[in-house]
Amino acid sequence: MSTALSTASSSDVTAAATASAAAPPPVVENPRTPQELAATVRAYAARVDLWEPLVRFTRPERWWHRLAAGADHEVWLLSWLPGQGTEIHDHGGASGAFGVVRGELTERSFVLPGAEAPRPPRVRGLAVSAVRAFGPRHVHEVTNLGTEPAVSIHAYAPILSTMSYYTEAGDGALLLHRTDPIED
Fold it and tell me: What pLDDT does 111 receive?
């Protein structure tokens, strides 16, 4: 896996109307629905014996481990020390879900480019057992704003191949910063 997920890792991103405005993530054929991915996350979360012995906490980057990879989806285990988080990113057209299995995380989600007028990001706090499912055009930022370490489980379909990263231009509008391939 490349460093793309190391800085990353019902949609809402709007691009500023400039030459460098973000194009929406592509829509790809998704073999699983966001609800099915949420069920996958819940099933893995219930298997504490499977993931808990693997958890590590690292600085300065977050730690991650692929729990499973099938032909049509993948499952990741991520850890978050206080203050660690992702850049604003999409999932290259993949749908996904993530659930908190330890600690708390905060998600900021954005309006899709061209979907509607820019607005400030929607902020959600996610505690243990919370699962957040999303479609192929979801753009967000996830951060551990708490004082305790957090752990989460993520599922994506299809398997991630690229992720795009954005910067805020103001009022919730986003500019595409870069697109990175995801490598094993």
Answer: 76
Q: Give, in order, the Cα–Cα distances in Å from 54 to each of 44, 101, 145, 160.
A: 13, 13, 23, 22
As a whole number of angstroms, the distance between CA 98 and CA 77 comes to 10
Going across the sheet that includes 95-102, the strands are 63-69, 74-80, 150-157, 95-102, 131-134
Annotated binding site for Fe cation: 89, 91, 140
Task: Kindly give the pairing relationship between strand 14-15 and strand 131-134.
Answer: unpaired
Mean pLDDT of the chain: 85
Residue 37 and residue 80: Cα distance in Å, rounded? 21
From CA 181, how far away is CA 42, in angstroms rounded? 27
Please provide the size of the chain in residues.
184
pTM for this one? 0.83
Binding-site sequence positions: 89, 91, 140
Predicted pLDDT at 120: 87
54 DSSP 8-state letter: G
Ordered by where they begin, the domains of the chain are 3-20+29-176 (2.60.120.10)
